[in-house]
Amino acid sequence: MTPMTRTDEKTGGAADGFAENKAKNTVVIKLSRDDPDPEKLKYCAEVIKKGGLVCFPTETVYGLGANAFDSEAVKNIFIAKGRPADNPLIVHIAGYDMLNIICRGGEEQRKRIALLGNAYWPGPLTMIADRDPAVPDEVSCGLPTVGIRMPDNKIALELIRLSGVPIAAPSANLSGKPSPSKAEHVIKDLFGRVDVIIDGGDCRVGVESTVLDITGDVPAILRPGAVTLEDVIKVLGKGELPDWKKAPKKGETPRSPGMKYTHYSPDAEVRIYDGSDIGGIRAFIEKEAEKEAGNGKKVGIFTTKEGAGAYDEKRFTVVYAGTRDDLLTVTHLLYGALRDFDKKGVDVVLAEAFPQTGVGNALMNRLYRAAGGCVIDIGGN
Question: In this predicted structure, what is the pLDDT of residue 244?
Fold first, then answer.
C-alpha cells in the first residue's frame, strides 16, 4: 500500500493519499471518483471485513458503511451517528448476485426488482423487499423487510465488491443534521467516530435515494427522491406516493429511513413559507426577516435566482439555489446551503416553499423535516 500522509488532530483534513488522526484513528483517503486507486480501496475493504466503519461517497449523499452481516459493526453505525435504534438502514450492493443473500421476496417482488433495476440501477432508488433471515435484525430494526440499493458511484461499487459483502449504510452525518453531500461535511460530523472517511468529491444528486416499498399490491414511495412517482409508474404501470408528512404511530418502527424523526436540520431554526403567489411569499418573508433582525437575530433566507432583488442582502444572509424551473439543482444545493447557514452563524432560516411535483416532493420532504414540520401558509396574499 502507498505511504500515508499524516495531519495533526486540529486539521483532520484530506491530503493527496491518506491523512490520519493518530489520537482518534480516523483515516481520510482522497480518491478520484472516476479512477479510484485500487490499493487504497483494498485497504478500505479490509476495514469493512474486520468490522470497521467506512464513510464513502455515492451519487446521492455520503454513506456510513459496515458489513451488513456483522451485527456488532452495524450496532456501531448507530453509535457513531447517535442514530435512534428503531431507524432502519439501507443495504448497498454491487451486483444482482448479492440479492439472493439479502432478500427472500416472491416472484412478484423479484419481477419488480428486475424491471426497476434495469431502469434505475445503479442509481438513486432503494427498494424495500422481504428480508432474508441472514440479514441481522439490527439492519432492519426487527422488521421483516430490508431496503436494498445499488449506488451509481464507482468508488462505492468497488468498495462493496472488494469487501465481498453487502454494506449497510445510512447517511454519514450526525443523526438529525443535514446529510453530507461533500467530504468536508462528513469530516466535520464524524471525524474521530469512524475508521475511514473516503473523500471522493461532491455527490451528484445531493439528497438521499427514493425509497420504494415493493411488498404491497401497489408499490409505495415512502421517501421521495430523484426517482419520482412518474418514473415508477412508467416502469411498473402503477405506484403511489402516500402523504410523507404523516409520521409512523407512537411505538411503530418506520419501514424506511427519514419517516419518523426531525431530520436534515441545521442548528438554526427553519421555517417554510407557502402560498399561491411567489411574489406574495417573498414580500411576507422580507417582513418576517425584518422583524427577526429587529429582535437581534441573524436571518438566513433560502430562495432561487428569481428571488434576486426581493431581499435585503446587506441585512440578511441570502442563498440563491438554482431556479424554480430546475428543482433538481435546488435539491442538490439544499444540504450545502443549510450547513453554510450554520457556518455563518444564522439563527433562523426563512425558506420559500416549492411545488410538490416530480423531484419537488423530495425537496419539500427534506425542507419539511429540516423545519420540524413548520410550514406557514400565507394564502394568496
Answer: 85
Query: Is 129 in contact with 103 (CB distance < 8 Å)?
Result: yes
Helix (H, G, I), strand (E, B) or coil at 84: coil
Mutual orientation of helices 38-49 and 154-163 as an angle, nearest 10°?
50
Q: Where are the beta strands (DSSP E) in 4-109?
A: 18-21, 26-30, 54-56, 63-67, 90-92
Q: Is beta strand 90-92 parallel, antiparallel or unpaired with respect to 167-169?
A: antiparallel
Residue 253 identity (one-letter amino acid) = T
Yes or no: say if 202 and 332 are a contact pair by the CB < 8 Å rule.
no
Do 182 and 331 sit in the same domain of this protein? Answer: no
pLDDT of 25: 87
Judge if 205 and 285 occupy the same domain. no
Please, are residues 335 and 61 in contact by the beta-carbon 8 Å criterion?
A: yes
Are 273 and 221 part of one and the same domain? no
- DSSP letters for 122-158: SSSEEEEEEBPTTS-HHHHTT-SEEEEE--S-HHHHH
Q: Which residues pair with 54 in a beta bridge?
A: 65, 196
The pLDDT of residue 5 is above 60: no
Q: How confident is the model at residue 176 (pLDDT cuts 50, 70, 90)?
A: confident
Residue 51 contacts residue 166 (beta carbons within 8 Å): no
- Separation of alpha carbons 173 and 87, rounded Å: 14
pTM of the predicted protein model: 0.90
174 occurs within a structural domain:
yes
Residue span of the structural domain in which 173 resides: 18-236
183, three cell numbers? 467530504
What is d(CA 372, CA 35) in angstroms, rounded to the nearest whole number? 40
- Residues constituting the chain: 381
Q: Which pLDDT belongs to residue 27?
A: 96
Largest CA distance in the chain: 64
pLDDT class of 35 with cuts at 50, 70, 90: very high
Cell, residue 137: 435484525
Q: How far apart are CA 274 and CA 271, in angstroms?
A: 10
- The separation between the first and the last C-alpha atoms of the chain, rounded to the nearest angstrom, is 64
Residue 247 lies in a domain: no
